[in-house]
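Question thread 4412

I'm putting together a teaching handout and wanted feedback from people who do this every day. The idea is simple: show students a protein as raw sequence, then show them the structure tokens that encode its fold, then repeat with a second protein so they can compare. Below is the first pair exactly as I plan to print it.
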Amino acid sequence: EMFEAFELFDRNADGFIDFKEMKLLLRSLGLRVNNHEARNVFGDADEKGTGRIDFDSFRIAMAKDLQKREELESKLEHKMAFTLMDTDKTGSLSSENIREAANRVGESITDEQIKNMIEDAAGEGATTVSFQQYSNLMNEVQLW
């Protein structure tokens, strides 16, 4: 689909597109991008600074851009979940926060399970989990 769209926007069929064509191409693929985002993608693809990119360069730049978007989306999801669990607004999750979150979704959880969860995220002997520790753990879980 991406290659077909690239060919469609390569109006003179020379195997290259310019910035304006690439921006239209991105929108035709259903990506909502502003000028700044489009320039970033184009700049990543146009390593030689010629003002034109070929399909392989475009494909590689798109893969990088999509990965960045997925990472940002994942971090936002983690932040929302963390904030919902941090009911006492301390900036960290305690065993009580985790128990409350489990109860809200109908899960029963033991003290030992909570202790293990906290230690998995924050290290042995820890009693709370920071946002960064929580986010890191969620990223590890997603890799499974």
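The second pair follows. I'd like the answer to focus on this one:
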Amino acid sequence: GSRTSSMALIDVTTTVWGMEYSAHACPKRHKMEAEAMFPGVSSDGLLVIPTCQRTKMDLVQTGEPVDIEKDFCLERFLDFAERVTNVLRADGVWCDYIDPCSGLSMVNRDSQHIYGEVDALVTLLNYQTTNSGCCKVVLHPTWGSAVYPASMFAKCSAETLKAAIAKAEAEIRAKDPEA
């Protein structure tokens, strides 16, 4: 549909906890960002995997409820991403994910480059943005600014990624049947 860019290898798909993910061949205009993020890693064959979680409130706001919600989304993303990347790494796949708190990569720690989640969603999914104070905020097509974005990366086929996500989903649902 219109909400997915031409480069999507996996269209926006809902996984555990209502989190959405998609997978994209790294587009030309995103290659410099990817190669700055992961020194020495070629962006050829690199999948960029943005995820979005719907939040209870607009994350533009400040205060304790927003901080609690961000922490909650952070924990869920890290749980999901760690499981997916563990499966991929066991198969010898190069992969990584971003710590949404710092914007730094979690697996390959040679880079101090900060990943631009908002720019990635604009580039990959044509999402709109809005300005809030000094921050650029991404607008999800149905959730608006009540969204928590975070990304993963892998050098594998879409099929291999789907299989790893299916394993991660099964593990998460085994401990959290509500997921």
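Top answer:
Good format. For the second protein you could add a caption like this: The first helix runs from residue 28 to 37. The mean pLDDT is 92.
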